[in-house]
User: Which sequence fits this backbone?
C-alpha cells in the first residue's frame, strides 16, 4: 500500500504543475483549469492526511468532510469564473492574459 | 511698586485694546492720550522712590533672568522725561495726525513704543534691557514706515532696523562678555561685583572689549558714527513720532544705558582705551554731523543732524567719565529737541507738508506762538548763557572735555560754534524775510492742541536747567564748577555763530554757501551703498543664495520630493497589470515565506 509520502508527493507535483500553468500559460481558461488543479492538489493532501490519521481505528473524517465542502465551493466558483471569462471575451474579444493589462499603475 | 507695574503695563494694554478690539474706532487716539497722561502722573508720583521687584522669567542653568522693575534716582528721573515728552507728543499728534487714515495704527505704534521705552528705563538687568532694546527698535521701525506706501519711508524703516540690529548684536555680545567676566547681569549684582574689586581683578583688555561691545549697542541706537546714517532717513516718519523717538527718548537710550553701566561697574572701568574710544566716537559724531547740518535744506533733517551732534556730545561726556554731564544734557536736550521737532511739525503742518526751509520764510508774523517757542528751543540748543537749560548742560560737557582731553575740548567748542551757526541759519531762513512759496504765504498759526504742547515745552526748554526744576524732576546733574575758560569759549562761539548765521543768511533767497561735501553728508551713504553693500552684503547674499538654492532647495526640499517621485516610479513598474507577473510574485512570496519558516 502506498505511504503518506507518496500521496503528498503526488499532491505536491499536482500543485507545482498547477502553479506553473498559472504562471506560464496565456490562455485564461487554461489558467483557470490550472487553478482548479492546485485546488485538487490541496484536496488530495487533505484526504491523505485524513486517511493516515486514525482516530479509534477509523480515519479522521473531518478532513474528508472538508474536501466535500471545498469541491462544492469550487464548483460554484467555476460557474462564476467561467461566466466572468465569457463576459470578458464579449467585451474585449480576447482571453489572452498578456492582452488584458488595463489594470496597471 | 504697584504704580510702577501699572506704568509698565498700561501703554501696551491700551495699545492692545486699541489694535485688537477697537480697531477703527475714533476714540482710539483719545484713549491712548489719556493713557499717556496717566503714565505721566504715575511717573511724577514715583519720583524719589527707590524700589526693585519682579518675577523670574527664565531659568537656564545657573542663570536666573528676571523681568523686574528698578526704581531709583536715575530711572524715575528718566521716566518723567519719557512720559512727559510722550504725553505732549500724544496731544500734539491729535491735531497733527487727525486727517491721517491710519491714525489708529500710529497711536498703537506710540503705545508699543512707550511700553518698550519704559521697559528699558526701568529694567533691572541687562537681559531685560536687551529685550526692550529690541522692542524700541521694532516700534521705531513701525513708526518710521508709518506711510509705508511711500518707498522712501519703507526704505528708511528698513535701514533704521538694519543699522539698529547691527548695533544690537554687538550689544548682546558685550552683555554676554560682561556676564562671562562678572558672572551676573543685574545692575545691583554688577555694582556689588565692582565694589568687591572685580574690576581691578578682571583683565583690562577683556573688560574694555566688553564695554566697547556694549557701546556698539549705543552706536546703533544713539546713531553714532559709523551707524549714524539711519537717523536722518528716519525723518520720513510722522514728525511727532520723530520728536518722541528720534530726538528725545529712544536715541538717548544708548546714553542712558552707558550711564547705567557706568553707575554699575564704576567709572574707573571705563578708563583706558574703552573710554577714549567712546569719547572720540562721540566727539567725531558731534563734529561731522554738525558740519553736515550746516548744508541741509530740509528742516527735519537739520534737526536730525543736530540731534546726532548733541548725542555725540552726550556720548563724549560718558567716554570722558563724566556720565552725569551726559545724562544732564540728555534731560535738557529731550525737552528742547522735542520742542524743536514739534515746532518743525507745526511749521510743516501749516505749510502743507513743505519741508524745504528755502520754500518757507516770513513765518514769524504768521505763526507767532510757534515762532516764539521755536526761538526758545533754538536758544536752548545754542546754549544762550544763564537763561536757557541747554547752557547749563552743555557747560558741564565742555568742562568735562576741558579737564579730560584738550583736543576733544577744541572739537566740542567747534561744534558749539557750528550749532549756533546752523540753528541761526534755520531760524533766519524759516521765520524771517519774505515768504518764498505759496505754501509759506498761506500759512497761519496752528490750533491750540498743537501750540499748547509747544508752549509747555518752551517753558521747560528755558527753565529745566535751573536747579529748582531739575531737582524736582530727579534729573541727574553733576556739581557745577565755574570755569572761566569754558564760559568764555562758549559765549564767544555763540556770538560768532549767531552773527555769522545772521550776516550770511539775512534776507537771502537761496543758500549763499555751497559745500557739496557737507551737503552730501560726507558721502557716507554713497560709500555704504557702493562698497559695503556691493562687496560685502552682495557677496554675502550670493553665498546665502547659493546655499539656499543648492542645499536647501536643490538637495533638501527638491531632493526629497524627487526621491519620493522616483521611488514611486520604481514601485509603479511592479503593478504592470500582468496577471502572470502577479501570480509569479505571489508564488515566489509564498515559497520564500515557507522557506523562512521551515528552514531558518
Assistant:
Amino acid at each position: 500500500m502506498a505511504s503518506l509520502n507518496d500521496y503528498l508527493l503526488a499532491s505536491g507535483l499536482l500543485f507545482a504543475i498547477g502553479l506553473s500553468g498559472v504562471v506560464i500559460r496565456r490562455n485564461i481558461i487554461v489558467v483557470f483549469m490550472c487553478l482548479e488543479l492546485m485546488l485538487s492538489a490541496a484536496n488530495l493532501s487533505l484526504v491523505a492526511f485524513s486517511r493516515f490519521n486514525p482516530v479509534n481505528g477509523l480515519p479522521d473524517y473531518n478532513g474528508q468532510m472538508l474536501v466535500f465542502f471545498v469541491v462544492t465551493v469550487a464548483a460554484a466558483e467555476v460557474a462564476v469564473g467561467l461566466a466572468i471569462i465569457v463576459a470578458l471575451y464579449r467585451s474585449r474579444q480576447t482571453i489572452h492574459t498578456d492582452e488584458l493589462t488595463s489594470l496597471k499603475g | 511698586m504697584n504704580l510702577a507695574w501699572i506704568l509698565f503695563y498700561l501703554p501696551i494694554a491700551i495699545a492692545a485694546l486699541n489694535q485688537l478690539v477697537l480697531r477703527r474706532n475714533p476714540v482710539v487716539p483719545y484713549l491712548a492720550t489719556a493713557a499717556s497722561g496717566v503714565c505721566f502722573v504715575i511717573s511724577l508720583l514715583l519720583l524719589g522712590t527707590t524700589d526693585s521687584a519682579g518675577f523670574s522669567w527664565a531659568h537656564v542653568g545657573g542663570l536666573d533672568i528676571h523681568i523686574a522693575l528698578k526704581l531709583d534716582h536715575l530711572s524715575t528721573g528718566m521716566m518723567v522725561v519719557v512720559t512727559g515728552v510722550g504725553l505732549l507728543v500724544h496731544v500734539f499728534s491729535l491735531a497733527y495726525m487727525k486727517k491721517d487714515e491710519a491714525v489708529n495704527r500710529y497711536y498703537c505704534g506710540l503705545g508699543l513704543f512707550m511700553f518698550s521705552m519704559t521697559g528699558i528705563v526701568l529694567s533691572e538687568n541687562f537681559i531685560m534691557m536687551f529685550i526692550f532694546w529690541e522692542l524700541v527698535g521694532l516700534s521705531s521701525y513701525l513708526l518710521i514706515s508709518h506711510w509705508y506706501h511711500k518707498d522712501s519711508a519703507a526704505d528708511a524703516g528698513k535701514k533704521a532696523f538694519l543699522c539698529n540690529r547691527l548695533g544690537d548684536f554687538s550689544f548682546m555680545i558685550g552683555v554676554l562678555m560682561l556676564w562671562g567676566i562678572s558672572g551676573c547681569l543685574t545692575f545691583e549684582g554688577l555694582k556689588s561685583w565692582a565694589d568687591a574689586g572685580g574690576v581691578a581683578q578682571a583683565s583690562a583688555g577683556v573688560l574694555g572689549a566688553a564695554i566697547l561691545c556694549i557701546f556698539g549697542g549705543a552706536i546703533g541706537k544713539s546713531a553714532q558714527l559709523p551707524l549714524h546714517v539711519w537717523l536722518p532717513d528716519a525723518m520720513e516718519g510722522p514728525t511727532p513720532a520723530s520728536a518722541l523717538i528720534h530726538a528725545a527718548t529712544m536715541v538717548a537710550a544708548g546714553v542712558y544705558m552707558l550711564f547705567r553701566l557706568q553707575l554699575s561697574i564704576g567709572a574707573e572701568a571705563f578708563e583706558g582705551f574703552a573710554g577714549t574710544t567712546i569719547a572720540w566716537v562721540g566727539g567725531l559724531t558731534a563734529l561731522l554731523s554738525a558740519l553736515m547740518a550746516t548744508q541741509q535744506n530740509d528742516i527735519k533733517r537739520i534737526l536730525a543732524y543736530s540731534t546726532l551732534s548733541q548725542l555725540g556730545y552726550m556720548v563724549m561726556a560718558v567716554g570722558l567719565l563724566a556720565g552725569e554731564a551726559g545724562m544732564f544734557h540728555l534731560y535738557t536736550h529731550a525737552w528742547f529737541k522735542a520742542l524743536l521737532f514739534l515746532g518743525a511739525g507745526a511749521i510743516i503742518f501749516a505749510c502743507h507738508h513743505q519741508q524745504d526751509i528755502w520754500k518757507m520764510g516770513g513765518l514769524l508774523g504768521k505763526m507767532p506762538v510757534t515762532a516764539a517757542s521755536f526761538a526758545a528751543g533754538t536758544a536752548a540748543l545754542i546754549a544762550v548763557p544763564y537763561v536757557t537749560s541747554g547752557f547749563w548742560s552743555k557747560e558741564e560737557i565742555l568742562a568735562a572735555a576741558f579737564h579730560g582731553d584738550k583736543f576733544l575740548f577744541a572739537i566740542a567748542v567747534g561744534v558749539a560754534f557750528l550749532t549756533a551757526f546752523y540753528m541761526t541759519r534755520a531760524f533766519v531762513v524759516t521765520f524771517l524775510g519774505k515768504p518764498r512759496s505759496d505754501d509759506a504765504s498761506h500759512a497761519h498759526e496752528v490750533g491750540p492742541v498743537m501750540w499748547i504742547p509747544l508752549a509747555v515745552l518752551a517753558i521747560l526748554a528755558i527753565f529745566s536747567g535751573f536747579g529748582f526744576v531739575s531737582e524736582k524732576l530727579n534729573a541727574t546733574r553733576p556739581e557745577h564748577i565755574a570755569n572761566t575758560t569754558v564760559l568764555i569759549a562758549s559765549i564767544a562761539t555763540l556770538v560768532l555763530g549767531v552773527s555769522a548765521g545772521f550776516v550770511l543768511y539775512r534776507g537771502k533767497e537761496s543758500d549763499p554757501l555751497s559745500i557739496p561735501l557737507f551737503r552730501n553728508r560726507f558721502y557716507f551713504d554713497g560709500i555704504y551703498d557702493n562698497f559695503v553693500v556691493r562687496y560685502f552684503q552682495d557677496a554675502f547674499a550670493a553665498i546665502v543664495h547659493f546655499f539656499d538654492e543648492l542645499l536647501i532647495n536643490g538637495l533638501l526640499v527638491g531632493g526629497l520630493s524627487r526621491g519620493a517621485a522616483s521611488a514611486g516610479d520604481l514601485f509603479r513598474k511592479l503593478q504592470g497589470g500582468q496577471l502572470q507577473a502577479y501570480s509569479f510574485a505571489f508564488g515566489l512570496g509564498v515559497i520564500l515565506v515557507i522557506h523562512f519558516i521551515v528552514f531558518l
Observations:
- The first helix of chain A runs from residue 4 to 24.
- DSSP finds three helices and no strands in chain A.
- The mean pLDDT of chain A is 90.
